[in-house]
Amino acid sequence: MRQLRLILIFLVVALVVFQNSFQGPFIFDDLRCILPNENIRKLWPPWAPFCATSRPLVQFSLALNFAISGYSVWSYHVLNLLVHVAAALALFTTIQLTLKRYGGFLSHANDGLALAIALCWMLHPLQTESVTYVIQRGEAMMGLFCLLTLLCFIVSIDSPQQTRWRLCSLLCCFLGLITKPVMLVAPLLVLVYDRTFVAQSVTAALRWRWRYYSALFAIMALLPLILNGNPQDWSTTVGSEVTGISWLQYATSQPGIILHYLRLTFWPDALCLDYGLRPEENSWVILGSSLLIGLFLVLTIWALKRRNAAGVAGAWFFLTLAPTSSFVPISDLAFEHRMYLALAGVLAVALPSGYILLDKGLDHLALFQRSKGLILASCALLAGTSLAGRTILRNDDYSSEIAIWTSAIEVSPQSARAQYNLGTALARKERVAEAVDHLSKAVQIRPSYPEAHYNLGNAFQSLGRLPEAILSYRRALTLTPDDWQAHNNLGVVMLKSGDNSSAEIEFERTLLLNPNCSSAHRNLAKLRQTLPKI
Q: How many CA atoms lie within 13 A of 521 on its CB side?
């Protein structure tokens, strides 16, 4: 009965805070990964949704949503929220059991502290990118399975059904790996926990549970096979040869970005879907941020050596960020959803520390001795309410493409992709003059942006500014000469400008690249009827 009440509390709170997210439209990568994805349009044969992807479980979940509501967004958001609530419950249970068994003088407050940490984690506005932005459910699902992998291990320690719980842990680890490759860190997280709280050393942990750890690491060995399901999922976004960012540039930029994540943890005032950052070049910024993050890392190692719980939380933070925030170049230097699991590590240190300081402080104030419990509860409620209010406001940003991209450029006006997406969204709403402003900024920030040049040409054409449209299309074709749509649209503008011979050339090029373009066939036929015969 107590467990049911707990589940209801988490569900009700989550529904209240995220209820304004259910009508948020597909945005950004949703438009690429969901709308044209034919593999999510059928559940039979049963292996169909698992094909042609490096994230099979995410694609299967999208297929379930499509079977329920087609492209109506509500079921996608409901599933995202249910996954997030389940992850929060797993986090609560993990912290509760840890404090109860190994929390020392904090064990008397294990339920309250675990509840405060899990609720703050669930309601934190940093989590909106993994919950409200549909396709980022991969981060939340992976987070759920990572937490369950650890939780099942913890339960197995004193359970008479140890083998069953260990098998459940291994299953969750596998499910996490076919959700998102970041799950690669799960065995290390379990080993750090085991070494600190249970076995007292890595050697003892591996010796006593060698079968379990062998199976965990064997599951990780499946990653190359899983990634091979669709190499394009990752091969176009990872690596120096793709991103144009060296491993050193990426690594030296990450300390500042991690500090930014930490600032948003405690003061989430300016959230952004797409920062569009370039590698940090200021040597003093690199040095200062590296020293500060280095200090946190040294403190984490020191706490781990002393088998202190803060060391486990610090290791959780650094390990969960390591795949995306270390030295492997990824096309985007920063994304807030990368903090989904890492946030738990920060809160697991911050909230108990705050509790200890406040508890000890009130002990020295006789006036507040009798109402100490009420004061502590009020502080926790205030923190949770503040986070919930900011999350509700952030969910409003996801109510439309225009709203989310407007909020992005308010925070990061130098993000070319944010400017481009806002301009494109405005153009779709026939706010073409405004679209021109943002598309123009996009190509100013990143001159080698063919999609922005192309859409700017479309906007100029809609406004009747034909010479500017011709220039934009030509710039797009300089960057992507095989873009048949740009050739076709350039032909249309040439035709409107009265340059029939140039229009004919463009339509012929269009048909060479795409023989099925009906518009080019039609316009070319009209042209050849009107052009004088020689």
A: 5
Residue 273 CA to residue 398 CA, distance in Å, equals 10
Q: How confident is the model at residue 240 (pLDDT cuts 50, 70, 90)?
A: confident
Joined tokens for residue 219: 């599951």
pTM, two decimal places: 0.94
Answer yes or no: CATH 3.30.420.40 is held by domain 415-530.
no
Distances (CA, A) of 460 to 62, 286, 422: 37, 42, 16
Cα distances (angstroms) measured from residue 314 to each of 145, 298, 519: 20, 10, 59
d(CA 323, CA 303): 23
Per-residue pLDDT tens digits for 386-414: 999 999 999 999 999 999 999 999 999 99
Distance, in Å, from the CA atom of 519 to the CA atom of 527, rounded to the nearest integer, reads: 12
Q: How far apart are CA 81 and CA 88, in angstroms?
A: 10
Angstrom distance (rounded) from CA 392 to CA 138: 22
Higher pLDDT, 152 or 230: 152
* Bridge partner residues of 330 (DSSP): 238
Residues 187, 216 contacting (CB under 8 angstroms): yes
- Residue pair 268/275 in contact (Cβ under 8 Å)? The answer is no
- Condensed to tens digits (0 to 9), the pLDDT of residues 137-173 reads 999 999 999 999 999 999 999 899 999 999 999 999 9
Distance of CA 365 to the CA centre of its chain: 45
| The two structure tokens encoding residue 383 | 């923190």
Query: 126 near 267, Cβ under 8 Å?
Result: no
Query: Other C-beta atoms within 10 Å of 85: how many?
Result: 22
In the chain, the amino acid numbered 347 is L
DSSP states of 393-424: HHHHHTTSHHHHHHHHHHH-TT-HHHHHHHHH
**For the chain, which residues make up each domain, given as ranges?**
2-395, 415-530
238 in helix, strand or coil?
strand
Amino acid, single-letter form, for residue 287:
L
